[in-house]
Amino acid sequence: MKLQRTISEFAKDESGTVAILWGTSLVAFLGFLAITLDVGRLQATHVELQSFADNVALAAAGELDGRNDAITRATNAAANLISDSQTFANGSTTLSGAADYTLTFHSALPASDLTPLGGDVTTNPNRAKFVEVVLTPKSLSMSLASGLDRLLGGNGFNAASVSAEAVAGFTQAACDISPLMFCLPPNWETTLGVGDQILLRSGGNGAAWGPGNFGFIDLASFEDTSGVCADEGGNKLACLIAAQSSITQCVLTNGLTTEPGQKVGITNAAFNVRFDMYRAVLNGERNNPDFAPAPNVIKGIKKKGGGSCIQGNEELTGDTAALGRDTCITNGTCGGNNRFGDGVWDRAGYLNTNHDLADGVADGAGSDAHLPPLSGTNTQYSGTRFGMYLREIAYGNSNPYSPPNADSILDPTLSETGRPMCSNNMSTDPARRVVTAAGIDCAQNPVSGSTSGVPVTRFVSVFLTEPVGDDGGSPPALTSTAKLSASRMSWAQAAVQMGSAGFSAMSCSSTGKERSL
Questions:
Q1: Given pLDDT bands bounded at 50, 70 and 90, which one contains residue 1?
Q2: Long-range contact set of residues 29-37: C-beta below 8 Å, sequence gap at least 24
Q3: Cβ distance 454 to 447 under 8 Å?
Q4: What is the rounded distance in angstroms from the CA atom of residue 293 to the CA atom of residue 311?
Q5: Residue 495 forms beta bridges with which residues?
Q6: Start-to-end CA span in the chain (Å)
Q7: Coil, strand, or helix at residue 58?
Q8: In angstroms, what is the C-alpha Rg of the chain?
Q9: Which whole-number Å values give the CA distances from 281 to 266, 289, 313, in the listed order?
């Protein structure tokens, strides 16, 4: 009976159940902990890799500016500028260099985020606008979960593969641009140097444009609705070209629409207000401060028969001259189609004509000793026409002559003082003779008539060196001089022709209006 009672009591005893339940729960807890730790390591690794991919994409995209070496610079920036680390994956903890990723360049992105990339892959540096970064997969051992699985009789887990992807793009915008565009020459980054001149000609109607051709762009959707031209009557295009500021909102590089037709007369007059010349639809704006002329309007022409306002009947002054053109373009010896110069112009001849009297002796040996030197970032323009223009303004601001001619740039006995005489206003900004225009790669993006979605390779700041279509001849000459440039772009000069009435000369300077977004 005693044995039977002992067996019965043992059978009823439940104190061991806790140990069994605890042991079973421990296995489940350890399994959950192992999975949690391994998944956490997996997630942390992915975050580290994604951060690296994002930084690589941003570094590479920042170099995609449409220049011929854009892809090379983007590749080098990704490889040399970005370094990171990962903690848990197998292999090296350092993330750096091309072995850790693959770069693919795209000219555009799909219209929908649901569409996979791949349809716009490009190796052309001029068209590459986006970069896709795919990291080389990293192996991550699921060691804790795998060990527990083996304890329970399983075969363990294979190592997980972790990677990341990123896409980044680059675009630019310019503010207060004028509705002017032109075709860049081939390899413009390397073929254009500081002060080189380009002969620009009208692209014409219906014909494909080539290097050096220019035309106009439709800025209707970019007009500053609170700006000068918002309530300006008359010709809108003329206002957008002629007004001082608050012309347009910031315009992106990813696509403009060209304006067909040759705007002879209207646009000539609009550009020429900068030279104190008011004609056609701008005739009534001579005393409107929104259309004030530049602080330096030396142009080598005057009103025939006397008078302060040149309005279509002009002649050469004989004792002053506009900034000169490249000698080889003037002589027709630049080579090729004589469209691109070398930056060599008759600087001494300009000084002898306009500044010979500065030392009080009319000996035909003018010098620039009296002109204040360039300083700061303007020193990059030494020897250029724009540099001469700036130094002349500084000279006029120093009041070199006695009253009432204290504000003259040139000797007051000459036909021109260099200051406006027709308008009773004068801009204080030297950039008044600077026009922000759109430079187009017309070889990659053919333009003819009205063309939509034309990408801008580079916004450039164009410095007008002489009035459009006016050199004192009758009829006005068809050529003029100019320079083009922008941030990170070499200086160049340009001469312009348009239709039967001519266009004008321009030059470019970096004005800070170009910016990256």
A1: low
A2: 30/148, 31/145, 31/148, 33/144, 34/144, 34/145, 34/147, 34/148, 35/144, 35/145, 37/144
A3: yes
A4: 15
A5: 199
A6: 96
A7: helix
A8: 35
A9: 7, 16, 17
The yes-or-no verdict on residue 487 having pLDDT over 50 is no
Residue with the bigger pLDDT between 2 and 99: it is 99
CA distance 291 to 234: 14
Task: State how far the Cα of 415 lies from the Cα of 437, in Å rounded to an integer.
Answer: 32
Q: How many residues does the chain have?
A: 517
Residues 6+ apart with CB under 8 A from 168: 54, 57, 58, 60, 61, 130, 131, 133
User: Rounded to 5 degrees, what angle do the CA atoms 163, 166, 170 make?
Assistant: 160
Q: How far apart are CA 78 and CA 104, in angstroms?
A: 12
CB atoms closer than 10 angstroms to residue 10: 8
* Tokens (6 digits) for 62: 């920042």
Q: How far apart are CA 331 and CA 356, in angstroms?
A: 25
SS3 letters for 28-40? HHHHHHHHHHHHH
Say how far residue 90 (Cα) sits from the centre of its chain: 43
User: CA dist 47 to 33, 86, 100, 163, 175, Å?
Assistant: 21, 9, 15, 10, 38
Q: Of 267, 198, 211, 269, which is closest to residue 479 (Cα–Cα)?
A: 198
Write the DSSP symbol of residue 98.
G
The pLDDT of residue 492: 35
Backbone φ and ψ of 458, nearest 5°: -160, 130
Beta strands 101-106 and 130-135 are antiparallel
- Structure letter (DSSP) for residue 322: P
- Cα three-residue angle 367-373-377, rounded to 5 degrees: 140
How many whole angstroms separate alpha carbon 251 and alpha carbon 42? 44
Write down the number of H helices and E strands in the chain. 10, 21
Residue range 306-320: mean pLDDT, rounded: 87
The torsion angles phi and psi of 353, rounded to 5 degrees, stand at: -80, -50
What pLDDT was estimated at residue 95? Answer: 92
Q: Is residue 485's pLDDT more than 60?
A: no
